[in-house]
Amino acid sequence: MIDRTLVIVKPDGVYRSLTGKIITSLEDAGLKMIAAKMVSPDADLAGRHYVADEKWLQSVGEKAISSYKEKGVSVTESPREIGMRIRQYLLDYFTSGPVLAMVFEGNEAVFITRKILGPTEPRKADPSTIRGKYSSDSYDLADMAKRAVKNLVHMSEDRDTAKNEIALWFMEKEISSYKRTDEDMMYR
Length: 188
Ligand code: ADP
Ligand code: MG
Fold this sequence. Notes:
The protein is an alpha+beta fold. The chain contains 10 helices and 4 strands. The chain has a 4-stranded antiparallel β-sheet, with helices on both faces. Helix 4 (54-70) packs across helix 5. The longest helix is centred in the N-terminal third of the chain and has 17 residues, at 54-70.
């Protein structure tokens, strides 16, 4: 099923000149870029992008706790407390420089994008993914420096989130409609 997703090259990806490689990795898999703009997010935009949603706070906190446990580190904070702390790091990270926001469309765009860009912690991401190939960052290194994991990109989690995120970053008239020359070959 054809769907759309939001991809953002975070400030570390822009500063490290990885925007081209990130775009190419998605285009090569058949995804079509239908919107793009460079923005330096202010606190308001960053806050609306990383909404303090209970489910997300819990999931971020739980992922962090399971990684602490793997390393034998004891945890006293609740998942939600960890989630709130990480959210603040994320807001600082997101407002620290320019980002490149894009919309990609294609078959299972949300799923394929997450597969190509890789899981959250670059240390664990497969080297065939953008996060695994271009970063080695880990939760403990980020924790020690009191910052978010620098994993180069943001991508929507699921179709519903993608719809909301696209509407936050782009007006309808900023999204283009066109056909890739290889679309018939891929989809028919
Ligand atoms: P993803 O970006 O893979 O969808 P999440 O939505 O769980 O990951 O988290 C959003 C972002 O928060 C991550 O991309 C990463 O930059 C940061 N982050 C998540 N967990 C941690 C953590 N334990 N420590 C530091 N930063 C984190
Ligand atoms: Mg996420």
